[in-house]
Design a protein that fits this description.
Layout lengths: L2 E6 L3 H10 L12 E9 L10 E2 L1 E9 L9 E9 L2 E3 L9 H7 L9 E11 L2 E3 L2 E6 L4 E8 L5 E11 L4 E8 L2 H4 E2 L2 E12 L5 E3 L6 E10 L4 E9 L2
Antiparallel strand pairs: 1-2, 2-4, 3-15, 4-14, 5-12, 5-16, 6-15, 7-8, 7-9, 7-14, 9-10, 10-11, 11-12, 13-14, 16-17
């Protein structure tokens, strides 16, 4: 199951109004950044509460800002997951943010590693290629451990906090990009693309598929002060 959505950065009410109906485009005056997202969840046949279905997630994201505009730094993001999704971080070995910060992934239990990824980012006008490891942090934590070698070597976990929700949503994932990954050796780091594959055993699972769709919402916040909200749904069965 693939999806592809193109979105130009917008602010506040304009973004919410445009995206409430369908993927759309608009402009943030500071940085009209276009986002393209390709995602695959497999299998797309949902499990049940008695028999959850383990899934794997494959996500590719691309950011593009027109020439002449400042490329914004992604500072944080909120992701809302639908009813019918299940996070089982408490069932698997975990690693802490302190251990990751001191020792990297070598200090973590092998069973805590849940996926791998890569990214490409602008360090001014030069491209750098961070490597990403998805690490289980327990029942309400996940980390994107990132290693960057240019313009200087930096390694740090991007912490994610997972909160159980009520109503339409099952979980909210809040990601905070640490300052050390936003500015490296005095150079601002602006993401161009991000690709990650995650899932091992039933770490990620599904328990239902209401109406044949899994809705989701993503809001990203930028160094320019703007934010973009994207809402859509993924077909399930």
């Amino acid at each position: 199951m693939r999806m592809r959505t193109i979105l130009i950065g917008a602010t506040g009410t304009l973004a919410a109004a445009a995206l409430a109906v369908a993927p759309a485009t608009g402009q943030d005056q500071a940085a009209p950044t276009e986002i393209t997202v390709d995602a695959k969840v497999s299998p797309n046949k949902a499990g049940t509460k008695k028999k959850p279905q383990a899934v794997k997630l494959d996500v590719d994201v691309n950011w593009e800002t027109p020439d002449g505009f400042e490329k914004p730094i992604v500072q944080k993001a909120d992701v809302l997951f639908p009813k019918g999704s299940l996070y089982n971080g408490g069932k698997y070995p975990k690693c802490s943010e302190n251990v990751l910060a001191r020792q990297g992934t070598r200090g973590c239990p092998k069973g805590a590693i849940m996926g791998k990824g890569t990214a490409t980012a602008f360090a001014d006008d030069v491209l750098t290629h961070p490597k990403i490891t998805v690490v289980n942090g327990g029942r309400n934590k996940v980390y994107l451990y990132t290693i960057m070698n240019s313009p200087a070597r930096v390694q740090a976990p991007v912490p994610g906090t997972i909160t159980k929700m009520r109503g339409k949503w099952a979980y909210k994932l809040h990601l905070e990009v640490p300052r050390v990954l936003q500015i490296v050796a005095g150079v601002p780091i602006a993401l161009r693309d991000f690709s990650v594959k995650a899932g091992r055993g039933d770490w990620l699972a599904t328990t239902g598929c209401s109406g044949g769709r899994w809705p989701f919402s993503v809001e990203t916040y930028y160094s320019t002060g703007g934010s973009t909200t994207y809402q859509d749904s993924i077909r399930c069965r």
